[in-house]
Amino acid sequence: MAREFILTGAPGAGKTVILRALEAQGVDVVEEAATDVIALDQGRGIEEPWRQPEFITDIARLQLLRAARPATGAVRVADRSLVCTLALAEYLDHPVPELLVESIGSMLASGQYERQVLFVELLGFITNTEVRRISLADSMRFERFHIEAYERFGFELVRIPALPVDQRVAMVRSLIGPVMNPD
Fold first, then answer.
1. Which pLDDT tens digit goes with each residue over 120-174?
2. With a threshold of 0.85, does the pTM exceed it?
3. Which one of 39, 61, 143, 146 has the lowest number of neighbouring Cβ atoms within 10 Å?
4. What is the C-alpha to C-alpha distance for residues 75 and 34, in angstroms, rounded to an integer?
5. Are 80 and 8 in contact (CB under 8 A)?
6. DSSP H/E element including 107
7. Taxonomically, which superkingdom (predicted)?
8. What's the mean pLDDT when you consider all of the chain?
9. For the stretch 161-182, what's the b/e string if a residue is b when 16 or more beta carbons lie within 10 angstroms of its beta carbon?
10. What totals of helices (H) and strands (E) does the chain contain, helices first?
11. How buried is residue 71: exposed, middle or buried, by Cβ count under 10 Å (0-12/13-18/19+)?
């Protein structure tokens, strides 16, 4: 069975760059869901999907689907988790759907993820995209919601500081260990 890690942080922290580098090194990565839900809804003409009542449920459903895919190596890294979706619901002041509450309970009971969460700290600036439209101040506020949510469920946050990408990737690799199953 694969060891599964969560890599998270606020929007604009540099998670995606770290994950692409890990993937290029053979690490099995589970893609995050919020960006894809936003992009799909925007493609459907919904300018600000995060204002829709079903937004949080849509993210949770996609996360559950992606997390159910069998791991392909000894280690798998998830780009965010259901706890991140809870933090997002609280940050946006959305009601927390029962699906999310039940799924977090199941996730915790199963011990699916390592208790050490790889928490990517903000870089000190934000590069906005069509999907990411958040200020640095708001991202810093959102970061606090993430920290509080993970700590509430007893996870240990291992901080990945604002360093050059190669150093951040090396730090993550040292924490997750070998990525291939021994033959």
1. 999 988 776 666 667 888 889 999 999 999 999 999 999 999 999 999 999 999 9
2. yes
3. 39
4. 23
5. yes
6. helix 98-110
7. Bacteria
8. 91
9. eeeeeeebbebbbeebeebeee
10. 7, 5
11. middle
CA torsion sign for 3, 9, 12, 13 is: negative
* pLDDT tens figures, 104-124: 999 999 999 999 999 999 998
Q: 47 or 183: which carries more pLDDT confidence?
A: 47
- Please check whether residue 131 is in contact with residue 142, taking contact to mean a CB–CB distance below 8 angstroms: no
- Distance, CA of 175 to CA of 45 (rounded, Å): 41
Residue type at 12 in one-letter notation: G
Cα(64)–Cα(33) distance, integer angstroms:
9
Can you tell me which residue has the tokens 């839900």? 37
Task: Give me the helix-helix angle, 55-67 and 34-43, nearest 10°.
Answer: 120
